[in-house]
Design goal:
This protein is an alpha/beta fold. It folds into 4 domains: 2-197, 3-Layer(aba) Sandwich (Rossmann fold), CATH 3.40.50; 205-333 and 371-401, 3-Layer(aba) Sandwich (Rossmann fold); 403-505, Winged helix-like DNA-binding domain superfamily/Winged helix DNA-binding domain (Arc Repressor Mutant, subunit A, Orthogonal Bundle), CATH 1.10.10; 525-597, HRDC domain (DNA polymerase, domain 1). The strands form 4 sheets. Strands 3-4-2-5-6-1-7 form a 7-stranded parallel beta sheet, sandwiched between helices. The chain has a 6-stranded parallel beta sheet with strand order 8-13-12-9-11-10, sandwiched between helices. Helix 5 (93-104) links the parallel strand 3 (84-87) and strand 4 (110-113). The structure holds adenosine-5'-diphosphate (ADP) and zinc ion (ZN). Adenosine-5'-diphosphate is lined by residues 15, 18-19, 22, 39, 41-47, 294, 296, 322-323, 554.
């Protein structure tokens, strides 16, 4: 049956070869064994159960919490000529009857079901009476109470092991840690599963973290210079900010839409659909826009605010470049972000133990921002994976960061906090250090303190960098009162006594930065016009068929067409991503266009 699987890979899906790990996972499942697959976004998890569902007799049941995506997943299967359907709460009773009927007759290869629907007695009764090829439990980390996407319905999925003991199960997730893995195993009662842990690196994503000085302009410049026509996601912390940034970007000619939990379901749906169905749409969102965003050609993820943990950062940036083509994870951050997040953790209603965990996670996130070494190396290390010390595709590798002896500056900053009574914010403290006669300084008599003017040799931007690092590293802490006043932490004692020296990061000046590598696969000049024509054709067909463009063909497939210019059906089939059904449905239209250009 593994020959059969390869046949399906090549003829139905039109792919030349498996991606890493797919072959053995598929063979295992076809042989009827359970498995637990941990693979980063874009690793190609779906194919791991789609092919066995087609090859094994009976219908493959895919359990997923992402109701909003089921329709597109099923359309995408239909374009490959695979008979698939879904059952969830969005369907009418008559539609449900029709699907149940198809299932009973054995006409379906794949059925997507939301867990709450699966667990209804009616559905279980239905499944009792049909042949089941396999169960695929997608987003399997939802079963874990330790994780952050816990869904109570997932806990009840152990019914599958009891009720359908002979049917193989495959649990899939992109979430890594050991504890979650164990929970998935035991909760789903997997039988001696084959564990597949693919590497976590996403080599096509370029990680960049920049100091915030005028965030909107920085974002605008980044988008104009590097992603002028691309689809992407901008993450913000607050709902209101997503709306402001979306309209700011729209005013500057971008197709940008807000998305957050406070918008009506209808608006959210409309914006999400435009993001999926059109090209070059930017979604400006809170973390409400997230799980299961499987649009393959998201070319950038920009963080306008700092995420709360590396787990969140990794998951959010992971939505870029699922198709394996170059993509950028870009972030701006500054001292206000550090202060705000520290305050949020301290002020939260969580118990002390939970706060401790949150502080630890935030420290790890800040650590990534402040390092002078390779970002990717640090990120992978945090997730327990070893990698080379330098990846060549992150900002610190592209523009090595210097360190400087900041001991004296740090002492001056900390004593300035002390002399002014440990209650002022960073802007005022910097004014004192530089020696400005502002009204506030006069009001509080701060021109008389001993630190007034002792830091005039540095500008305010340099001082902000010093304060940011002192707060990030825990030498200074933030006033719980909520006004952003800084206090001295115990950690500063040795520093003040002169018993410790401190090396700081010299934030690179943006105008001096070496240009990063182009973040787009470049088509040679002579293929550009054909590429545009092929994209227009795809756009038209997508609109006619009512599916997102990438469901017709991926960018990589169209680029290969533009470069190799197939002249007939046989040559067309050799393009990666062109299977038999898609050739039949769309081949002629694309061949005609290629013909005009040859
Ligand atoms: P995941 O669910 O792991 O994030 P997907 O299943 O969405 O990943 O696959 C990621 C992308 O890789 C998809 O666009 C898919 O079409 C593509 N893909 C999967 N398998 C192959 C393959 N064998 N060859 C080429 N592309 C593939
Ligand atoms: Zn690097």
């Amino acid at each position: 049956m593994t020959d059969q699987a390869r046949h399906v890979l090549q003829h139905t899906f039109g792919y030349r070869d498996y991606l890493d790990y797919q072959e053995s996972i598929i063979a295992n499942l076809i042989a009827g064994r359970d498995s637990l697959v941990i693979m980063p976004t874009g690793g190609g998890k779906s194919l791991c159960y789609q092919i066995p569902a087609i090859v094994r007799s009976g219908c493959g049941i895919v359990i997923s919490p992402l109701i909003a995506l089921m329709h597109d997943q099923v359309s995408s299967m239909s374009e490959y000529g695979v008979s698939a359907s879904y059952l969830n709460s969005t369907l009418q009773p008559s539609e449900i009857d029709e699907i149940e009927w198809q299932l009973r007759k054995g006409e379906l290869d794949l059925l997507y079901i939301a867990p709450e629907r699966l667990l209804q007695e009616r559905t279980l009764d239905l499944l009792d009476g049909v042949e089941i090829a396999l169960f695929a439990i997608d987003e399997a980390h939802c079963v874990s109470q330790w994780g952050h996407d816990f869904r109570a319905d997932y806990l009840l999925l152990d019914v599958l092991a009891e009720r359908y003991s002979g049917v193989p199960k495959i649990a899939l997730t992109a979430t890594a840690d050991q504890r979650t893995r164990e929970e998935i195993n035991s909760r789903l009662k997997l039988r001696d599963p084959e564990l597949v842990v693919a590497g976590f690196d996403r080599p096509n994503i370029q990680y960049r973290i920049t100091q915030k000085n005028n965030a909107r302009q920085q974002l605008l410049k980044f988008l104009r210079n590097e992603h002028a026509e691309d689809a992407g996601i901008v993450y913000c912390l607050a709902r209101k900010k997503t709306e402001e940034i979306a309209s700011f970007l729209s005013d500057h000619g971008f197709d940008a839409l807000p998305y957050h939990a406070g918008l009506s379901a209808e608006i959210r749906k409309r914006h999400q659909e435009r993001f999926f169905r059109e090209e070059g749409v930017i979604i400006v969102a809170t973390i409400a826009f997230g799980m299961g965003i499987d649009k393959p050609n998201v070319r950038f993820v920009a963080h306008f605010d700092l995420p709360k943990s590396l787990e969140a950062y990794y998951q959010e940036t992971g939505r870029a470049g699922r198709d394996g083509e170059p993509a950028t994870a870009w972030m701006v951050y500054g001292i206000q972000d550090v202060i705000k997040l520290r305050q949020m953790v301290d002020a939260s209603s969580a118990g002390e133990q939970q706060k401790q965990i949150e502080r630890y996670k935030l420290d790890a996130m800040l650590g990534l921002c402040e390092i002078t070494g390779c970002r990717r190396h640090a990120l992978l290390h945090y997730f327990g994976e070893s990698s080379s010390e330098s990846c060549g595709n992150c900002d610190t590798c592209l523009n090595p960061v210097e360190k400087w002896d900041g001991t004296v500056a740090a002492q001056q900053a900390v004593s300035c906090v002390y002399r002014t009574g440990q209650r002022f914010g960073v802007n005022h403290l910097i004014d004192v250090l530089i020696g400005k006669y502002t009204p506030k300084i006069q009001q509080h008599g701060h021109s008389a303190v001993s630190t007034f003017g002792i830091g005039a040799d540095m500008d305010s931007q340099q001082w902000r960098s010093v304060f940011r690092q002192l707060v990030a590293m825990g030498y200074l802490s933030v006033d719980i009162g909520g006004y952003g006043g800084l206090r001295i932490d115990d950690k500063s004692r040795l520093l003040l006594k002169g018993e410790e020296s401190l090396y700081l990061r010299r934030d690179p000046r943006e105008d001096k930065l070496r240009k990063p590598k182009p973040q787009k696969r470049q088509l040679a000049e002579q293929h550009q016009a054909l590429w545009e024509a092929l994209r227009n054709c795809r756009k038209r067909l997508a609109a006619d068929t009512g599916v997102p463009p990438y469901v017709i063909f991926h960018d990589a497939t169209l680029m290969e067409m533009a470069e190799t210019r197939p002249a007939n059906s046989d040559e067309m089939l050799r393009i990666n991503g062109v299977g038999e059904r898609k050739l039949e449905t769309f081949g002629r239209e694309f061949l005609q266009i290629i013909n005009q250009f040859t």
